[in-house]
């Protein structure tokens, strides 16, 4: 089976983790600090604060921005559920605006009409590894004095106009095993603001400022030194992992161009898309349904996945909160998208098998 994800854990990672285990210092310590410095330097921000996962990174970033009960945060409905949930965890209301058809990212033209006196922040998601339109979105945030939070959980190393995502606002990353780099579970928040960095550090550690001195309400959202050791090794290889993902995506895109009814991913100008996912559209023109297509690929030993079958506003947990928005572009995307294997461990044979599988599926 050609799998959707295959975390690349090498000898170096194993040795680094053993070293931490033998040191006896397992919880948040020197390795976490080292990983934070290396990550900030990679993204090009002054600070980075490690957390237990991407969801707690988003939650912590929103809390540090002062998002609270009664506030509204504009975001995309076409993302993993954590994007919306982190806003709810703060007592705030996610306000969903529709996406662009081509990029699957938040449509900048729909942000201003959604702004109300309660709007405090915009949370963008660089979906599948493709950066959002940061020129337009950055300008809107400045004009209306809104906080910009980037869910970059799928976009480690992705760039817009030569700048890494996560450096435009407060950046949130996940190191879950399927992501472009992993620490098992883990997260990171990037910022240039020293006050925000200090709040982030306190919120993820019980509001502590000095030993057993708790200034604010905080949580245990810490990363372990074991995870950080993995992260340091993975970060060194991130550019190479991404290079392979992009190379694989270029190969598959070329092949898919010739197949009627399949639309390969669009890459916007001035963007470095790092292909966390390689997501195509299966349109009616293709002749068989997406589900049938998926089944036939599976029979040929090719795994695939749907990111995402249900937009966040249509999830039962949100329906129960009273969400009744109609967001047609996101809802149509949810019907058509199909992600194919793209990870850096794919061999030339794997890639050829995928192309053959796509061609033979009908
Ligand atoms: C993975 C992911 C998250 C959550 O990260 P975890 O580490 O799984 O908590 C949030 N947002 C998006 C867009 C993601 O892909």
What strand line-up does the widest sheet have? 1-9-8-5-4-2-3
Overall pLDDT level: 97
The beta-strand count equals 13
CATH topology-level fold name of the largest domain? Aspartate Aminotransferase, domain 2
Bound molecules: pyridoxal-5'-phosphate
Proportion in helices: 25-40%
Multimerization status: single chain
The radius of gyration over CA amounts to 20 Å
Q: Architecture of the largest domain, CATH level 2? A: 3-Layer(aba) Sandwich
- Helix-and-strand structural type: alpha/beta
CATH class of the largest domain: Alpha Beta
**In one word, what is the shape?**
globular
- Name the CATH superfamily classification of the largest domain: Type I PLP-dependent aspartate aminotransferase-like (Major domain)
Query: Major beta sheet, specifics?
Result: 7 strands, mixed
What percent of residues are in strands? 5-15%
């Amino acid at each position: 089976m050609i799998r959707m994800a295959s975390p690349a854990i090498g000898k170096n990672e194993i040795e680094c983790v053993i070293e931490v285990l033998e040191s006896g210092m397992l919880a948040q310590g020197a390795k976490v600090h080292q990983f934070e410095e290396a990550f900030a330097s990679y993204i090009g921000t002054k600070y980075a604060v490690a957390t237990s996962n991407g969801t707690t990174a988003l939650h912590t970033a929103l809390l540090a921005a002062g998002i609270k009960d009664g506030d509204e945060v504009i975001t995309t409905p076409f993302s993993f559920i954590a994007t919306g949930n982190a806003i709810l965890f703060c007592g705030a209301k996610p306000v969903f605006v529709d996406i662009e058809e081509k990029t699957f990212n938040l449509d900048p033209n729909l942000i201003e009409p959604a702004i109300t006196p309660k709007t405090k922040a915009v949370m963008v998601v660089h979906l599948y590894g493709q950066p959002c339109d940061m020129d337009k979105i950055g300008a809107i945030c400045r004009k209306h004095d809104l906080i910009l939070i980037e869910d970059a959980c799928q976009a480690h190393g992705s760039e817009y106009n030569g700048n890494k995502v996560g450096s435009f606002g407060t950046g949130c990353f996940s190191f879950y095993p399927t992501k472009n780099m992993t620490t098992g579970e883990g997260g990171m928040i990037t910022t240039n603001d020293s006050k925000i960095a200090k709040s982030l550090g306190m919120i993820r550690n019980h509001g502590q400022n000095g030993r057993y001195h708790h200034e604010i309400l905080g949580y245990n959202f810490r990363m372990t030194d074991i995870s950080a050791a993995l992260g340091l090794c993975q970060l060194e290889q991130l550019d190479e992992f991404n290079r392979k993902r992009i190379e694989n995506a270029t190969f598959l895109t070329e092949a898919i161009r010739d197949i009627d009814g399949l639309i390969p991913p669009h890459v916007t100008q001035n963007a470095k898309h790092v292909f966390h996912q390689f997501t195509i559209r299966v349109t009616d023109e293709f002749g068989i349904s997406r589900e049938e297509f998926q089944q036939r690929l599976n029979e040929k030993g090719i795994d695939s996945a749907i990111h995402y079958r249900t937009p966040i506003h249509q999830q039962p947990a949100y329906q129960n909160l009273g969400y009744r928005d109609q967001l047609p572009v996101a809802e149509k995307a949810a019907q058509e998208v199909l992600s194919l294997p793209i990870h850096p461990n794919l061999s030339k044979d794997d890639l050829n098998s995928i192309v053959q599988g796509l061609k033979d599926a009908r």
